[in-house]
Specification:
The chain contains 17 helices and nine strands. The protein is an alpha/beta fold. The strands form three sheets. A five-stranded parallel sheet has the order 2-5-8-1-9, sandwiched between helices. It has a two-stranded antiparallel ribbon with strand order 3-4. It has a two-stranded antiparallel sheet with strand order 6-7.
Length: 369
């Protein structure tokens, strides 16, 4: 048995070929974290314990702290297809549930603009496996939020142009409904940005362990294998806290911070192959100082593991450590001049600019030798 298979929740379950492709495959560079081990053990232990079952997880932390990577790793461990939905401020109930769209006659279709024809044809040719947002995203190459807006435009257009003919309708589920009904691991990104209370209420209801969703065509019940992983960035000044009712439906929460320096360096070496220990030690110190300084001064950007990966990789490729610091880390945090000065001052006060220059000079000397 492979290491991750010991956590499979329903080993007897037969996935379709399409579903098997959705189960995340861990790359060779994946580093198993304490959080991953802890959550996997807890869920496996409680899976068949009725009301004690753990199936709603909250991962809360800064951008780049590994929340999505962890959600995907859980997909691999549990043997469940992974999918996600990214929430946005103006979500409405159709984004939670899905939409009923008309089947337009070929005559009406031919009168539409080419772009509109592409959308409708993509919808009609779908096999029901994809959600409506996925279909629109694939057909038009647009974001999830843009797909939701496009769906609303289609609904309005169809309602206004019936030409008096009898119309057949077809229901297209949302990504949430698809995962909920088929028993996938669904990552729900940033639900704290949703403004409409009715949308949050629908989401809260779905997350009950014995919950159900009322669709226009039927009532569907939560699949026993469905797991919701809610990921949110830690709040900064002025941002909306996570809805209390939603938080109450969570059975396990992880506070996602930057890992220890040792683990940060291990992950960078695994990801990039760059193994200059002294230099990586300084880079990690600089990332941590920048992260603390940004939060202390309410600077909205963060310095996280993604920045560390790309910065180390740029240096490994021959880029200047100090110059790439700005392009890979600082400008990701902010491009405001005053805020940049605060970050630079923090690095200088810790002696990190001088240490970086010294370590890079040593590296260049060794490279020449």
């Amino acid at each position: 048995m492979a290491e991750n298979e010991k956590y499979h929740l329903s080993p007897e379950r037969q996935l379709t070929d399409a579903e098997k492709k959705l189960v995340w495959k861990k790359p060779s560079t994946h580093q198993v974290s304490e959080e991953e081990q802890r959550i996997s053990r807890e869920i496996k232990r409680n899976w068949n314990r009725g009301e004690m079952k753990i199936a709603n997880i909250l991962l809360e932390g800064d951008a780049g702290s590994g929340k999505t990577q962890l959600a995907k790793a859980l997909s691999a461990n549990f043997g469940l297809p992974y999918t996600k939905v990214t929430c946005f401020a103006d979500m409405d109930k159709s984004d939670i549930i899905g939409a009923i769209l008309p089947v337009i006659s070929s005559e009406r279709l031919e009168k539409m603009e080419p772009a509109e024809q592409t959308v409708w044809k993509a919808l009609y040719e779908s096999d029901g496996f994809q959600s409506i947002s996925e279909i629109l995203m694939d057909a038009l190459g647009i974001s999830q939020e843009q797909a939701a807006l496009k769906m609303k435009q289609l609904l309005k257009q169809a309602a206004e142009n019936t030409d008096g003919e009898a119309i057949e309708y077809r229901f297209y589920p949302s990504e949430i409904v698809r995962a909920y009904q088929k028993g996938y691991l669904l990552e729900i990104q940033e639900p704290n940005v949703i403004r409409d209370a009715a949308v949050l209420m629908a989401l809260n209801s779905a997350l009950e362990l014995d919950g159900s969703i009322n669709l226009p065509t039927q009532i569907i019940h939560r699949h026993p294998d469905f797991i919701a992983v809610i990921t949110t960035n830690r709040s900064y000044a002025g941002t909306r806290p996570l809805n209390e009712a939603l938080r109450d439906r969570v059975q396990h929460t992880e506070k996602m911070d930057l890992p220890t320096k040792e683990i940060m360096i291990e992950r960078v070496i695994a990801k990039t192959g760059f193994q200059v220990g002294k230099l990586l030690d300084i880079l990690a110190d600089m990332i941590m100082v920048l992260d603390r300084t940004a939060r202390a001064n309410a600077i909205k950007g963060v310095a996280g593991m993604r920045s560390f990966f790309y910065w180390a990789d740029a240096i490994a490729g021959g880029a200047s450590a100090k110059e790439s610091l700005y392009h890979k880390v600082i400008y990701k945090i902010t491009t405001d001049s005053e805020e940049i000065k605060l970050l630079e001052e923090a690095l200088k006060n810790h002696g990190l600019f001088a240490s970086l220059e010294e370590a890079e000079t040593e590296l260049k000397k060794k490279t020449k030798i």
